[in-house]
Design goal:
The protein has about 725 residues and is of the alpha/beta class. The chain is built from 20 helices and 31 strands. The longest helix has 16 residues. The mean pLDDT is about 90.
Length: about 725
């Protein structure tokens, strides 16, 4: 018997091994194996098993596998189909997709359940004489029904030696027992909830999900009650003995989403995301694999969760670019969810108030069904949205030109009413650059083609690409003049200016700098939900999916920032961000208001977002995309090349571009430096390829790289269905 194994190295090939006779009956596809590889022992997954005999004419002998690490397969046959399909689609090594599909904490050699000593009282009469202390300890342990040794020592103010002495006497048993590391902790102690009455739109959406034989786009305005529809759809799957996956785009949304699902489904809910400890990830993954957890909540990687009898996959905020992986394998979790649903016969729901144009086009083409929810659920109404032209002197700019007078007045009114405000600014730090007023030079990162961002909190200049930093210079590094200026606005600067305008207001800031600690996302959002702050100021992590009943004002401080990106999706992203953040206001009985500050109030994306008119925006944007032959009217791949040598990357980028141009059916750009020309010391170039079918691009790319493999000084990667062209 032979087995083909994907080794834990991204070599993009399978290795064939012989299966010893003693292991043949136990071997199955999807198992984790230990195999000899070169001069070391490697681990890998069994991808194919063949019953054929060894070819006696082969000039070399096959090595036998060492052992089966775990007899229970890590991958079902359907999940392996998904892995193979994603590897082929993204032109990625199959090993890299396997690695993305199973957390490293699960497969590493020392991964194991956590064991602690558990103390359990024995029953019956004991002929031994006890001291008063021993009798008291036994009585307390019997009253509690036993417990973990560490906890009993703490509560009973005793020592492990005293408890072990009770065990020696025979009063208790002290033995190791597996203890689950539960990342949800206190979330499981919240009060259970019951299904809410559905309005007519929600009932229609639920019926559409249950009857659809294709993916369903749940197109519901912010606050329309999409989550309750998800909950009731999942409840019906659980009643039928099936499981579900709920995907969210950001870790910051996971605690809130888990809270709602845990209150409905209790111990059946598991969570998977990168902020978990290795132990928590190990235990949650095995709970899912064993069937103890039937509902999985998490971001991108949750699409691979080994849910038994999968019946439903929900992709919430399906438009969000966080579902696209930035490094190998560069897959779209939304598209992977649709593919997995098709492979496993599971329903797929894509929910959004601002759908991606790809999903919208799939509805128009009949590939997806659509369930629309145009009204807010309950007493909530859509907020009143106003644009403020910051280029107009009448805007009365205050706080270092950060706030219009209209926005400041609106914040003051909310403070008087004890209502809450959310302010959105999609740039962290204090100022985006430090510039010399004398010579005009900027303080740049030497390893990246970007200026340093000034961070006032720790008085340093940081690069948001490579993470490098320097102490804030006192004089210009170029000319020595002391006239340094801080240009641009970041969340730290906006926070400081707001604190000066409202000295008694309590302000919370939520960005990558304030959420570096574990659970910091949930801590900030929970404090705001409890009313411990008047204003929540943050980047795009506060723009989606959050529900705060007391928020009646949303302010957008710089609506133009995403419009200026060198990307054909800039208008779409601007519309989605503005519409999503506007949807945080007025979600309960209190009416909401949104003030969008912009220097270009006539921009179509900003005007459409203010009106909440997605259909009109989509029609105009799709027309422009069709004329220019951009997705969703084609598939687009970006070939990214980088090298420490500027001449090497330029020469090879031009060679690959010219080679691809010769392939029939491809539209290929000239080789050009990336918008971010240098990052972490690497010079970056790119070639953009478009075609009607992904297979045309991947086939051409694999052939060309095979003919002209890159030198050691060059790194290349192809990003199929690329989201970022920077």
């Amino acid at each position: 018997m032979l087995v083909k194994v994907a080794i834990d190295l991204a070599l993009d090939r399978l290795f064939t091994y012989e299966v010893p006779e003693a292991l043949r009956e136990k071997l199955a596809v999807g198992q984790l194996l230990s195999v000899p590889f070169g001069h070391r022992t490697a681990r890998g997954f069994a991808m194919e098993v063949a019953a054929g005999a060894i070819d006696s004419n082969r000039p070399y002998s096959l090595k036998p596998i060492d052992s089966i690490v775990d007899e229970k397969p890590f991958f079902s046959g359907k999940l392996l189909e998904l892995v193979r399909a994603l590897a082929a689609y993204t032109a990625a090594p199959v090993e890299s997709v396997l690695k993305a599909a199973v957390p490293a904490a699960v497969v590493k050699p020392n991964a194991r359940p956590k064991e602690l000593y558990f103390v359990e009282p024995a029953l019956g009469e004991f002929p031994v004489s006890l001291t008063k202390r021993q009798q008291w300890l036994y009585d307390q342990i019997a009253r509690l029904g036993g417990g973990w040794m560490q906890q009993l020592c703490r509560e009973l103010k005793t020592t492990p030696a005293s408890l072990k002495e009770l065990g020696r006497i025979g009063l208790v048993t002290v033995a190791p027992r597996q203890k689950r590391r539960d990342p949800l902790g206190g979330l499981r102690r919240i009060l259970p909830t019951k299904p809410l009455p559905l309005n007519d739109e929600q009932k229609a959406a639920l019926a559409a999900i249950e009857s659809a034989d294709k993916p369903v786009l749940l197109f519901g305005v912010t606050g329309s009650g999409k989550t309750e529809v998800y909950l009731q759809a999942i409840a019906r799957e659980l009643d039928a003995g099936r499981g579900a996956i709920v995907m969210v785009p950001e870790i910051s949304l996971t605690p809130q989403t888990v809270r709602r699902f845990a209150s409905r489904f209790g111990e059946k809910v598991a969570v998977l995301h990168s902020a978990l400890s290795d132990g928590e990830r190990y235990d949650e993954w095995h709970r899912i694999r064993s069937g103890a957890a039937r509902v999985v909540v998490g971001p991108r990687s949750a699409v691979f969760a080994p849910v038994r009898d999968l019946g439903l996959i929900v992709v919430d905020e399906e438009h969000d670019q966080s579902y696209k992986q930035d490094d190998n394998p560069r897959y779209s979790a939304r598209d992977a969810a649709v593919l997995r649903g098709r492979l496993e016969g599971a329903r797929v729901v894509l929910g959004s108030a601002t759908p991606s144009l790809e999903s919208w086009m799939n509805v128009e083409r009949g590939k997806y069904a659509c369930a629309a929810m145009a009204n807010r659920a309950g007493a909530g109404t859509l907020p009143d949205v106003r644009l403020v032209d910051m280029s107009d002197p009448k805007s009365g700019k205050q706080g270092g030109a950060i706030f219009s007078q209209e926005l400041l007045d609106a914040i003051a009114l909310r403070l008087d009413r004890h209502e809450q405000t959310i302010l959105f600014l999609n740039r962290r730090g204090y100022s985006r650059s430090v510039t010399c007023a004398a010579c005009g030079a900027t303080v740049d990162c030497p390893d990246c083609s970007l200026p340093y961002t000034y961070h006032q909190a720790d008085d340093c200049c940081r690069c948001h690409i490579c993470g490098g930093w320097i102490p804030t210079p006192k004089v210009c590094p170029a000319c020595g003049a002391p006239a340094l200026q801080y240009k641009g606005i970041g969340t730290q600067r906006a926070e400081a200016a707001l604190a000066k305008c409202f000295r008694n207001a309590h302000i919370l800031r939520m960005d990558a700098d304030s959420t570096s600690r574990k659970n910091s996302h949930d801590d900030i959002l929970s404090a705001f939900r409890r009313g411990e702050a008047d204003v929540l100021l943050g980047t795009q992590m506060i723009a989606k999916g959050l529900d705060f009943p007391n928020v009646t004002l949303v302010g957008v401080l710089n609506a133009d920032s995403s419009l200026n990106m060198p990307d054909f999706r800039a208008a779409e992203r601007t519309y989605q961000l503005l519409a999503q953040v506007a949807g945080r206001a007025g979600r309960a009985e209190l009416p909401g208001e949104v003030i969008i500050q912009t220097y270009d109030p006539s921009a179509p994306a900003i005007v459409a977002a203010a009106r909440g008119d997605f259909a009109a925006f989509a029609k105009d944007e799709l027309s422009a995309r069709k004329e220019c032959y951009f997705p969703p009217y084609c598939h687009l791949a970006c070939v990214n090349l980088r090298s420490k040598d500027m001449n090497v990357v330029a020469a090879w980028a031009e060679m690959y571009s010219k080679s691809l141009m010769k392939v029939k059916g491809l539209t290929v750009s000239e080789a050009v430096p990336s918008a971010l020309e240098k990052a972490e010391g690497w010079y970056r170039w790119q070639v953009v390829v478009r075609a009607a079918a992904v297979s045309s691009i991947v086939r051409a790319w694999r052939w060309i790289v095979g003919e002209r493999p890159p030198p050691a000084a060059l790194r290349i990667a192809i990003d199929v269905d690329a989201y970022n062209l920077v």
